[in-house]
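Fill in residues.
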């Protein structure tokens, strides 16, 4: 039976990540990077597509689990008939090669344990050749090799194209397993000491968590979300992936299955605001620098997403040998939305760089030149239709959110010149653009009959993205049109208090069959909008409802199925956790001002 998405916990080393089920099985892991091919892909197929299970013999799910303190070190505990045992799972921040460390600790009594390692490279399609070497098990296939060892050595054998181990732990006894990946043409990397690695990991995460300067309400939830965002950061470049998974469905057995192992520009401003407000200036600067490298070049070539290092090519393909999560096919890698025109990203980049400058991040001399170039392109393009924030695969339209973000781009440019008159630029022209965009949106994107902004010009369809209108400063929160939009969106797009991105009519125009769950970040936006329009009690109630949707280790996916009471979409989702942090800070009055 397919495990629920929320049954998984996250481990990672700031370059890739794995998902560990309640049953002690790592069912998803891409090595050596977030966007590499998976060597454990049971999440999107079955056990034959790769997994690594360590658990008491014959046991089911663990009794309880949780992260150790403010870390990404996972502890799962089984209370069995013969005793209690725990498994500590983590990935040390690597020096050379990625390691997965699993330490089995006897707590009481005596427990028989088993380990089944079923490596399948290239997303579960390649069975490696496994042999003994220097006291290890060495698995090799093409460019990939993996070494497995245990300390102390335990009984290990090959069976049915898997590597199995059997051992018993008593109270106070430990058995540690270390799995190490490296390119098959290179010599074996230095061996990681599992216990030193655990100590270093705990100390490293402790130092990082201590830098958080937020001490307000919901701090534990904020801290866990910040740790998750840190875990989704590709340390070599500073890029933040949208999620470490691909093809977890927006509808069970549906086709809305996408690869999120890339960096979206639309996340930039909200991520920066969360990091800056919480005191993580180094991470904010690294994300800003990634952004500048990624968008450098001809502004006409700006993409909505990039690879971890700023790569531009992420072609979308299907993996037909994988049955999909709970039968949700196709399984995709790459993302065809990369070729879409989404004009809002120009505003998001301008907003991000303005926020970085206003927050006192160390300046980058070339940043303003890039911003001027981007705005120059947008001046000639903002009147055109596009695919919009939600990556519609239907016909282009004049999306209200895209136009609002064009206004943001001009507004931030004007504010930058006002704060630093020494910079070059034509503030008069940009003010005129700003005023023209606002006039057009208020004329063509507003429905006076229902007192609400719509998804696109001439449409009656609503869009949760219009909740951002007061947040970005397009109109003040007390403007009757803003209050009306909040009420209309809440009335027409909410189900059990949670928001969908757009209604059924919009789903008919997005070029895809089927439906989807409530989009969690939109529900956080609703809480923000309720607070900004003076309904703080309702905002807080909604926020606490959203907090209750997190799983037992504090993680959120992209969407939520209220009828099935389960999480949907790629997981854990950066946008959802950014929304959580942002709303908590907003309710506490601690958010960095734009």
């Amino acid at each position: 039976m397919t495990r629920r998405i929320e049954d998984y916990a996250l481990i990672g080393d700031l370059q890739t990540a794995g998902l560990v089920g309640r049953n002690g099985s790592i069912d998803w892991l891409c090595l050596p990077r977030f966007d590499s091919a998976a060597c454990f892909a049971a999440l999107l197929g079955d056990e034959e597509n790769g997994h690594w299970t360590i658990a008491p013999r014959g046991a089911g799910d663990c009794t309880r689990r949780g992260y150790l303190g403010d870390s990404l070190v996972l502890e799962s505990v089984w209370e069995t008939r013969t005793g209690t045992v725990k498994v500590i799972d983590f990935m040390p921040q690597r020096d050379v090669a990625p390691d997965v460390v699993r330490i089995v600790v006897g707590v009481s009594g005596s427990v028989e344990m088993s380990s089944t390692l079923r490596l399948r490279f290239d997303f579960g399609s390649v069975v490696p050749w496994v042999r003994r070497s220097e006291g290890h098990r060495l698995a090799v296939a093409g460019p990939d090799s993996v070494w497995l060892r245990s300390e102390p050595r335990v009984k290990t054998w090959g069976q049915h194209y898997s590597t199995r181990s059997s051992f018993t732990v008593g109270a106070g006894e430990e058995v540690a397993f270390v799995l190490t990946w490296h390119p098959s043409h290179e010599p074996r990397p230095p061996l990681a000491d599992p216990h030193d690695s655990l100590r270093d990991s705990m100390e490293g995460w402790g130092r990082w968590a201590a830098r958080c300067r937020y001490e307000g309400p919901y701090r534990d939830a904020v801290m866990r979300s910040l740790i998750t965002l840190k875990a989704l950061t590709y340390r070599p470049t500073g890029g933040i992936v949208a999620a470490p998974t691909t093809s977890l469905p927006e509808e069970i057995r549906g086709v809305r299955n996408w690869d999120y192992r890339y960096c979206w520009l639309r996340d930039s401003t909200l991520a920066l605001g969360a990091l800056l407000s919480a005191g993580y200036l180094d991470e904010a600067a690294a994300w800003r620098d990634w952004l500048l490298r990624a968008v450098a070049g001809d502004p006409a070539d700006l993409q909505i997403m990039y690879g971890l290092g700023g790569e531009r090519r992420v072609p979308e393909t299907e993996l037909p040998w994988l049955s999909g999560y709970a039968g949700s096919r196709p399984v995709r890698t790459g993302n065809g939305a990369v070729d879409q025109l989404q004009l809002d990203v120009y505003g998001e980049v301008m907003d991000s760089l303005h926020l970085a400058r206003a927050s006192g991040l160390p300046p980058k001399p070339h940043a303003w030149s890039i911003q001027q170039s981007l705005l120059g392109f947008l001046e000639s393009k903002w009147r055109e239709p596009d695919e919009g924030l939600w990556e519609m695969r239907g016909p282009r339209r004049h999306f209200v959110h895209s136009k609002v973000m064009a206004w943001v781009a001009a507004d931030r440019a004007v504010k930058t010149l006002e704060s630093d008159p020494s910079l070059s630029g034509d503030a008069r022209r940009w003010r005129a653009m700003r005023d023209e965009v606002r006039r057009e949106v208020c004329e063509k994107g507003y429905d006076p009959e229902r007192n609400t902004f719509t998804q696109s010009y001439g449409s009656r369809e609503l869009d949760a993205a219009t909740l951002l209108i007061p947040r970005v400063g397009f109109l003040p929160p007390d403007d009757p049109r803003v209050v009306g939009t909040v009420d209309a969106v809440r009335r027409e797009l909410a189900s059990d208090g949670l928001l969908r991105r757009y209604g059924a009519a919009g789903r008919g125009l997005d070029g895809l069959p089927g439906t989807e769950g409530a989009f969690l970040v939109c529900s956080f936006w609703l809480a923000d909008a309720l607070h900004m329009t003076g309904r703080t009690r309702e905002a807080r109630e909604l926020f606490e409802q959203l907090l209750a949707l997190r799983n037992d280790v504090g993680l959120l996916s992209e969407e939520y199925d209220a009828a099935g009471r389960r999480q949907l979409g790629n997981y854990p989702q950066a946008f959802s956790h950014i929304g959580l942090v942002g709303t908590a800070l907003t309710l506490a009055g601690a958010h960095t001002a734009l």
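The mean pLDDT is 95.
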